[in-house]
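Before a colleague's protein record goes any further, I have to sign it off. Would you go through it and say whether the fold makes sense for this chain? Take the sequence as given and treat only the tokens as open to question. The record follows directly below this note.
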Amino acid sequence: MQHHQIVSQQEWIDARKALLAKEKAFTRQRDELSAERRQLPWVKIDKDYRFEGPNGSESLSDLFDGRDQLVVYHFMFGPDWQEGCPSCSMMADTFDDAIVHLNQRNVSMVVVSRAPHAKLKAYEDRMGWHFRWLSSEASDFNQDFHVTFTEEERENGQAYYNYQTGSFPVDEAPGLSVFYKDDDGQIFHTYSTYGRGLDALLGTYQFLDLVPNGRDEDSLPFPMAWIRRHDEYGA
């Protein structure tokens, strides 16, 4: 436990108000950044991506489920993997409750991985999730949105992830992509984020950032090394 200065209540209030001013400035900056994000140009999607899910083969258009906006979470689960990524699993623990509310704002959300749908379904049942999870194994979707890499790309430092090229430790990566469908049925890619860009979606980390020890990851081999699937803690 770190040692901190112990002060009077009034001194604490003064320090807290000074930090509050910075927090409010950060909130305003975040709102401005969000508005700028929504003004990004769009790219029209012309490729016929196909996904395998509980309803059989579906198109990208089908995934909108009658809404105009679609969020796709790229969940790390390769075709040969036996389990989903622990960090992606921690994030997925929050999806079901969020989707209920997203639907009320004209937003659909699905999860996509390259593992076969049967394997995804078995893991979904184990985790107790109910969101729509589809396999992109038969399409180029993961490659085109830069969350799957070949062995050659990884070994040669040519894996393109988070808008830069370099090495990558595994063949799958996390990410989130957003799409819009207009009245004519045309689909547009509006946004994607990767790496620390996903940080704000990790509710557990937002809580940890508020407590005295913070994320407490400095001594770990990598920042998320402590994370387990929710049925593995204490095992």
Summary: The chain has seven helices and ten strands. The longest helix spans residues 9-38. The longest strand covers residues 187-194.
